[in-house]
Amino acid sequence: MAHVIVVGGGAAGLSAALFTQKNGLETTVFDTDKTWLHKAHLFNYPGIGSQDGTVFLETLQRQAETFGVERVSAEVSDVSESGDGFTVTADGEDHDADYVVLATGANRDLAESLGCDFDGDLVDVDVTMETSVDGAYATGAMVRAEEWQAVISAGDGAAAALNILSTEKGENYHDFDVPADADEAFGAMADES
Ligand SMILES: Cc1cc2nc3c(=O)[nH]c(=O)nc-3n(C[C@H](O)[C@H](O)[C@H](O)COP(=O)(O)OP(=O)(O)OC[C@H]3O[C@@H](n4cnc5c(N)ncnc54)[C@H](O)[C@@H]3O)c2cc1C
Predict the structure, then answer these.
(1) Domains of the chain: which residue ranges?
(2) Rounded distance, CA 69 to CA 81, Å?
(3) Is the CB of residue 100 below 6 angstroms from any atom belonging to ligand 1?
(4) Assign residue 92 a region: left if phi > 0, alpha if psi is -120 to 50, beta otherwise?
(5) From ligand 1's centre to the CA of 9, what distance in Å?
(6) Predicted confidence pLDDT, tens digits, the chain (193 residues)
(7) Binding site membership of 35 for ligand 1 (Cβ less than 6 Å)
(8) Which GO terms describe its molecular function (predicted)?
(9) If you write DSSP's letter for every residue of 4-64 in order, what string do you get?
């Protein structure tokens, strides 16, 4: 099974992780919990009327964990290419990944040290959020000058995940569910939404 490592557990990172893990790829999120969501109150996230950013984050964390995402509280100090994949160093320990999704907010240091191309100050990505380094994605605030909105970051993370899934499955992939899937997939969470 391919292993995806996501660096950053805000809107972009958790969205990417939700989509990859839910669709069969083992996914680990490393995060230092400095997400801007802790400062926000969301009135503009479609489908959510009014919600404290931390409450939104906690729901997203539980949602990702429900599908099996592993969340680790640790700072990633380095991401480097190794063989066909990547080595991610967190709190002094190395971890192997087939794909890496950078979702570190406005901090672009890891993309720079990995050797990703930049367009001015921004990490240069295509519409799938893939960087110039094959298998490395950059999402959310780090790829945008000012369009810093939670829903855009979440969309970026989903786009990266679907591209990874399309690569793994060898065909264009989308994650569609129907109402009959809901009880089985969400269980107790269905009662909370
Ligand atoms: C005061 C304020 C109010 C806001 N209000 C709104 C609003 O009303 N509506 C709205 O849509 N948006 C709002 N935003 C913006 C919104 O919070 C951001 O657009 C969104 O959080 C960006 O998501 P992200 O995943 O790209 O980055 P973030 O949510 O910032 O997440 C990045 C994560 O990466 C982690 N990280 C960074 N480096 C490392 C590393 N080396 N190793 C491990 N982890 C790392 C950080 O700790 C953080 O948890 C607001 C922001 C602020 C500051």
Answers:
(1) 3-191
(2) 23
(3) no
(4) left
(5) 9
(6) 789 999 999 999 999 999 999 999 999 999 999 999 999 999 999 999 999 999 999 999 999 999 999 999 999 999 999 999 999 999 999 999 999 999 999 999 999 999 999 999 999 999 999 999 999 999 999 999 989 999 999 999 999 999 999 999 999 999 999 988 887 765 645 555 5
(7) yes
(8) oxidoreductase activity
(9) EEEE--SHHHHHHHHHHHHTT-EEEEEE-S--GGGG-EES-STT-SSEEHHHHHHHHHHHH
| 174 CB within 6 A, ligand 1 | no
**Domain 3-191 classified CATH 3.50.50.60?**
yes
Does 79 sit in the ligand 1 pocket, CB within 6 Å? no
Nearest CA to ligand 1 atom 38: 104
